[in-house]
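User: Hand in any protein.

Assistant:
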Amino acid sequence: MALKGKTVDSKTVLIHLLLCLVIFYSLYYMVGSVCFGAFRLDHFDGLIPFDFKTEPAESNSKYLVNLLSLELTYFCSGLLFAAVVRRRVWDYALTVTLLHVLLTSLVMLEFPMVWQWWLALGSGLFLMICNGQLIAYFTCQSDQSYPFFNIY
């Protein structure tokens, strides 16, 4: 049984991807600045989305800010991605995450090998996909062109 759905042209996909990237990084910096203020850190690090070199420890406030910013950004991004793309949120979430890993490697000039960072990234991606797909599912139930509903 094949899934039947509307095909989307490449231009629309590219525009949605660029919108998702802008949403992701704008949200990352907004959440990061709020977390920096909440933890009363002295210096806002502009590399917060790309910083995987901070020593992971419970007593390290900068690490906690980075971790909290990452998880909150991924949580909220899934909700906003659903509003933008309305379908296949998992695809955009995965693509944005892969581009984020690529940009992180380019900015920091090395590939992230810290397992705590990968664990946080994976759990954030899981949150983003689950939240986004649930929102897309409930908002698109009446849309007959939504691929999931053409199966039944």
Remarks:
- The mean pLDDT is 87.
- The helical segments are 10-38, 61-85, 89-108, 115-139.
